[in-house]
Amino acid sequence: MLHRRRQKRIILLGSTGSIGRQTLDIVRAFPQDFRIVALSGHSRPDELARQIEEFEPIAAALTNGTVEPPPGPIVRWYRGGNGAERMIREIGADIVLNGIAGAAGLLPSFAALESGKDLALANKETMVMAGEIALDLARRRRRRILPVDSEHSAVYNLLARFPGEPAEIILTASGGAFRDRPLSDLGRVTVEDALRHPTWSMGKKITVDSATMANKALEVMEACRFFGLPPRRVKVVIHPQSCVHALVRAADGALYAHMSRPDMRLPILAALTAPRVAESDFGRLDLENCRLDFSPVDPARYPLLELGYRAAEEGGALPVVFNAANEIAAAAFIEGEISFLDIERVVDGTMTLGWPNLNRSLDDVIFNDNLARRKARAVMSDIRNAR
Ligand code: NDP
Ligand code: MG
To answer: What pTM was estimated for this model as a whole?
Structure first.
């Protein structure tokens, strides 16, 4: 691909997850171009050990303090809750790819920017919780934040070639596992049902978030931050085939679409090589055998999307509160503690408690996140006790 170039040194966070493993696929496909200098995992030491053996990084972090590092090849180990941050600060690299799930990815993103590295961001929670603070830090450190989320990668690439200011951007949503279920069934659906995503194979939490559309709500907030647009100029449309990832509407009404096969390796590779477009072959979209359907989002089926817009419009602590309450509720649903429809009840109940307008510093963000988690747990136990 870029043979005479120096290898790009990558610190890969969340290497044991869905984004992490697909990033390693890319490094496998382009060994001359990329080198893994450090990896992080949380609770799967055996998977991490296999990756260390294959990619021979200098360092590895195991962030779940109760899990022992695996035996095997010698690397510099970073253990415990802030292991990833310490590793990022101490290990030299060109770019950090953050594929950690949830709010746990926030501080590692900041460690990457503070230590002068570019940040390829799959962890959308960083942008939802602290997007402006992160972008400001990136500007001051002259580092880039490159979106990995497929819709945002699509918009980023469209805007790079776009004449003038976009009138609006449109994110597509597959509609998740329950797009075609009768509404009256949603009270009875199981975790296994929710984990059957029609087009993408991803981690558990984001797959549940696709079924509720909390994922798209987070992506609306992520897009507002990344592209500096107000929420009313970020639209969502259902597109079951997931071939069009996003569209940009120009001032004259024309729409520009970004299309590819639904394969996360494409946006990951785009983030790792931007602004260059790498020559790659992860399969081409077969236009002659491809249908494209679009339909509006039914608010009765996906009430969390409306709540996400409310959080985006009101701002302050609310995006953090939305994310925290949804993390608590989605995890409880995955554990079988609450029903699918309770997820929205927990998020709504937590958001309506009344929240401060203050979300200016990283300390504010962490304070709001902790408080929102405590309150969401209380709302959740009220809902369960009322049964
Ligand atoms: P997975 O659940 O598959 O993987 C999550 C990764 O994060 C694992 O390596 C896991 O380690 C690690 N991790 C989990 N909890 C913690 C923690 N508390 N501290 C540190 N590390 C932790 O998730 P995905 O790969 O699906 O998603 C990762 C991020 O990317 C999310 O923000 C998601 O929204 C975003 N994203 C994902 C897409 C996808 O296709 N999967 C698409 C677009 C965005 P371990 O497994 O060892 O416990
Ligand atoms: Mg996405």
So the answer is: 0.97
